[in-house]
Amino acid sequence: MAIEVRIPTILRTYTDGQKAVEGAGATLDELFTDLDSRHAGLRERVVDGGELRRFVNVYLNDEDVRFLDGISTKLTDGDSVTILPAVAGGAR
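The structure corresponding to this sequence follows.
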């Protein structure tokens, strides 16, 4: 099962600069474990205590997984996952 994962610039140091990588897994949790086996440290930046980190947004086929099943969201072959760090702040 091949799933494309789009990597934000800030996490590309873990993927040797690649913008997108392929992984496998029946759920997001399994996918991040699979990715970590080839891109050590990536899972730690996305998952904390068995849940998605608060300031990291993950989308499955353009749908926010927080409104699905979070880290337990089911995946199928050909899915696309996008990792986006939350951005906040600005001038007053």
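The chain is about 15% helix and 25% strand.
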